[in-house]
Design brief:
alpha/beta, Rossmann fold, Helicase, Ruva Protein, domain 3, five-stranded parallel β-sheet, two-stranded antiparallel ribbon, 11 strands
Length: about 350
């Protein structure tokens, strides 16, 4: 084969790869549109919450949902599992829940043919594609640690054996912010394992009226499948291939470093309001979330606007406020708002937005 023919072959392969990626992006954007329509048949409003959940799902991240009871958190998760053809389980965490109650345990069974007794592993509810860990702060630290290991390592350890979890594996944990008696709050180091901390708010007056009408009628919405588990795994790979320019990485880095009181880049208000800032994992999730958001909107490049869009759910549970901030009712969301105004964006991205707009 001549050098020219070899070069042509490599160029053709590169074009084919680009075409396949372009088709995958378009396919994900179309599936995203279908998912929003299907979820809208059951969930009224909460569009920002839905978008953040789907961004985390396609980024291989886990979510912590914080909201008062009755805001359809469980219904939202089960609806997403239906339209994605994923197995779904819910664990109601209680103070007496043990690690084996979620991971499973070895059971001694008799073999009818040989008469011998052997241990057989019986899987717990952790072995599913989509897990709702309801009120995760109501269970002891030992059980929380078993869940956190599964989230991080994608496997469960029982005795001396390790068992791989089904893929994709996606955990949504909920916390009730108004009942704190008899709870075991997650330490900051464990909160850091969650990609997003999503605040579920009350619906608007118009949305609440629609909820009352829809949920008290006899009609049952019919949901259609948008994606399968195998397709989700393939699209998760596509998300990681989305290119991000150097200035996008720089902005994510600067945003994370600006949250740390000990850094020279930190504004003065950070030293007043923040005791501990976000670690490097926050920058990783800012980039991954931005990539997923870009591709869900049909774009194959990341902008700093994508990073800003995921900054609140990524950073709000990674900042520890000082007593001074608490006394002035300054929340982590307030601090993030100030950071987004203060941390500069490089000119390359501004020029792109001006040219596009």
């Amino acid at each position: 084969m001549t050098d020219e023919a070899l070069d042509n072959g490599v160029a053709t392969d590169a074009l084919d790869a680009e075409e396949r990626e372009a088709q995958a992006i378009q396919g994900l954007a179309n599936a995203y549109s279908r998912m929003r329509q299907e979820i809208g048949k059951v969930i009224i409003g909460q569009q920002e919450i839905v978008d953040q959940l789907l961004i985390a799902l396609f980024s291989r991240g886990h979510c912590l949902l914080v909201g008062v009871p009755g805001l359809a958190k469980t219904l939202l998760v089960s609806t997403i599992s239906q339209i994605l053809e994923l197995s779904f389980r819910r664990i109601q965490f209680t103070p007496d829940l043990m690690p084996s109650d979620i991971t499973g345990t070895d059971v001694l069974q008799d073999d009818p043919e040989t008469g011998r007794r052997t241990f057989q592993f019986m899987q717990g509810p952790l072995f599913t594609n989509m897990l709702l860990a309801d009120e995760v702060n109501r269970t002891p630290p030992k059980t929380q640690a078993a869940l956190l290991e599964a989230m991080q390592e994608r496997h469960a350890t029982v005795g001396s054996n390790t068992y791989r979890l089904p893929q994709p594996f996606f955990v949504l944990a909920t916390q009730n912010p108004i009942e704190q008696e008899g709870t075991y709050p997650l330490p900051e180091a464990q909160l850091d394992r969650f990609m997003f901390n999503i605040v579920v708010k009350y619906p608007t007056a118009a949305e609440e009226l629609r909820i009352l009408k829809q949920t008290t009628s006899a009609e049952e919405p019919q949901l259609s499948t948008a994606l399968t588990g195998k397709q989700i795994l393939a699209l998760q790979e596509v998300v990681r291939k989305v290119p991000a320019a150097e200035h996008a990485f720089v902005y994510a880095r600067d945003l994370a470093r600006a949250t740390r009181p000990g850094e020279s880049e930190a504004p003065k208000f950070i030293q007043e309001y923040i005791e501990w800032g976000a670690g490097p994992r926050s920058g990783q999730y800012l980039i991954l979330g931005a990539k997923a958001r870009a591709i869900l909107e049909g774009r194959f490049h990341v902008t700093t606007d994508d990073i800003k869009a995921v900054a609140h759910p990524v950073l709000r549970h990674r900042l520890v406020t000082t007593f001074h901030a608490d006394s002035e009712n300054v929340t982590t969301d307030d601090v993030i708002d100030m950071l987004l105004e203060r941390v500069p964006v490089e000119l390359q991205d501004k020029g792109r937005r001006i040219a596009q707009g």
